[in-house]
Design a protein that fits this description.
Blueprint (H helix, E strand, L loop, with lengths): L6 H11 L7 E6 L7 H9 L5 E8 L2 H4 L14 H28 L4 E4 L6 E2 L4 E2 L3 H7 L4 E2 L5 E2 L7 E8 L20 H5 L5 E2 L8 E2 L1 H11 L4 H5 L5
Antiparallel strand pairs: 1-2, 2-8, 3-8, 4-5, 6-7, 9-10
Length: about 240
């Protein structure tokens, strides 16, 4: 894709672009700091030249989540539809932001692969995405993965949607967020999990989640956001 510019040039140009992406938060993870990890391995499978991961985040409004419920009454208005519509809007914004970023990187002569907020391939045998946005976001300093298995951010708690862009650009990683609240102080996500998919993790484990139980309940109920809705962080 032409001569490669100095990484400093790419970083400088991206500093001007990122505020224009119309997202709520941006984090950058340098894979040089995550050598040999699952994050690096999955990124390299998608883009062998990858050096950095840019993670994009947008807030899910708590006012909409407060109207959702895992319980439905046949024929009654399904308030979960509001959350689904809201998520579609956010997903569209994140997808556009990722493509805008990739386009800017291509113009600099650098390879870039935008990964969509919705529609990223999943291995259904293991309920595992080809690339974990939340682990990339944690590596990029946007938050920490909590007992709910969701990324917990200081400003929005778990109420965020994520997308990512892999690039061969060598970018300066963002600093980790200052989170003084350690997840696990309340355990409300485990108590309120309608599917029973969450459990108190063992020492050294960030969370325990039965992905299949969660997915089955989500499909059968027509939507569930309880773990996200009840989390007190970011309220």
């Amino acid at each position: 894709m032409g001569n490669k510019p100095e990484s400093a040039t790419a970083s400088t140009k991206l500093q001007y672009l990122i505020p224009e992406l119309d997202v709520d938060a941006v984090g950058i993870a340098s894979l040089a700091e995550w050598e040999g990890t699952e994050l690096e391995k999955t990124a390299l499978k998608l883009l062998p030249q990858v050096r950095s991961v840019v993670v994009l985040a947008m807030e899910i409004y708590p006012e909409i989540l407060d109207l959702t419920s895992p319980k439905t009454i046949m024929g009654a208005a399904l308030m979960n539809d509001l959350a689904n519509s809201h998520a579609d809007f956010i997903n569209g914004r994140l997808i556009k932001a990722g493509h805008d970023l990739a386009k800017a990187l291509h113009r600099l002569g650098l390879k870039a692969l935008p990964l969509p907020a919705k529609g990223c391939p999943i291995d259904e045998r293991f309920m595992k995405a080809v690339f974990s946005f939340k682990h990339a976001a944690q590596a990029a300093g946007l938050g920490k993965i909590g007992w709910s298995s969701l990324l917990i951010t200081p400003s929005f708690g778990p109420r965020v949607r994520l997308s990512a862009c892999l690039t061969e650009a060598v970018l300066e990683p963002t600093a980790s967020v200052d989170m003084t609240l350690e997840c696990g102080s309340c355990g409300i996500c485990i108590k309120r999990c309608s599917s029973g998919a969450l459990a108190r993790p063992n020492a050294g484990e960030p969370y325990i989640m039965n992905k299949f139980a969660c997915r089955c309940f989500l499909v059968a109920s027509g939507g569930c956001s309880e773990c996200m809705r009840v989390c007190p962080v970011g309220r």
